[in-house]
Amino acid sequence: MGPESCFDFVKLPKTDLHVHLEGTLEPEMLFRLAGRNHIPLPWKSPAMLREACRFRDLAGFLAIYYKGCEVLVTEQDFYDLARAYLERAAADGVVHTEFYFNPQLFCRESTPLAAIMRAIFCAMDEMRDRISSFYMGTVMRTRPVEEALRALDELAPWYDRIVAFGMGGAENGNPPSRFQRYFDACRERGFRTCVHAGEEGPAAYVREAVALGIDRIDHGNAAIQDPELVRLLAERRIPLTMCPISNLRLNVVNELSGHPLKRMLSRGVCVTVNSDDPAYFLGYASDNWAAVHRALDLSGAELRQLALNGVEASFLPEARKAVLREKIKRVLPSA
Ligand code: ADE
Ligand code: ZN
Hints:
- By secondary structure, the chain is an alpha/beta fold.
- The chain has one domain (about 5-330): Alpha-Beta Barrel (TIM Barrel), CATH 3.20.20.
- The chain contains 15 helices and 8 strands.
- The chain has helices spanning about 25-35, 45-50, 60-70, 75-90, 115-125, 145-155, 180-190, 205-210, 225-235, 245-250, 260-265, 280, 285-295, 300-315, 320-330; strands at about 15-20, 95-100, 130-140, 160-170, 190-195, 215-220, 240, 270-275.
- An 8-stranded parallel β-sheet has the order 1-2-3-4-5-6-7-8.
- It is globular.
- It binds adenine and zinc ion.
- Zinc ion (ZN) binds near residues 168, 218 and 276.
- Adenine binds near residues 168 and 199.
């Protein structure tokens, strides 16, 4: 399948394993919630917010992303956000999503954590027949590890509905190893672990993630600079949840033709395609697939492998994985 062939990626049964619920807040909804909660905004219109989404780097993006989070106040807001994301992902052909949500970002006086969690789980349950979804907790790497441990404790009433915990935020100067106690605690409580590493940070941070026994690495781009590390990732089948359009918008890559996804895939790494913060990066799951297909001239076999990697890298039980593999093989049969 050459880049000129126009495969409709909406029809591909896909996973999205690296998406931040807060990053699915579309400008129109952001303005609607700001209006109903009387929150002042630095932009005059959704169009002007979209204009502001030309980021220089991760820090520039995070400033706007955290500002956007301020409009999420009531239980209804969190429900509307989660429901809209799941509807959109299902319409985009995502059959299973594992999304992050960070309760640390939200002020507890206005909305108790219980109300936020009720809203998100309610939307997930209502959408269950159209899209399977897992909630993953996450914390900010710029804050003290004690705060991460506290956030983990605070989610205890909902542990039976959470599959994994991760870590995001400004990467440079905040290596995964600083959070060893947090990741150990997550594992001791039965959770899978993920960490953003090698997005803006160096390959050494990806190495640290591997040494910490992390189950899945978010981004991992910088690993390409360390061939021995690439071999290790491939050998252990430690998945990378790559986000091509995010990388382009945050200048992690200058152009998609230079994205390491295809090189990693050819070396046997369990690379997957994901959306990260689709409302801010102007691209949902199928847009990411179409963009890398176009830029890297992926073959039918490579697309199939990427889709199957998404199933392998998910935290789904084996029975559901088998169902999804069959769905993929029907759409992308081997030659
Ligand atoms: N939080 C939301 N999106 C992120 C990204 N791309 N990198 C780090 N932290 C994030
Ligand atoms: Zn991310």
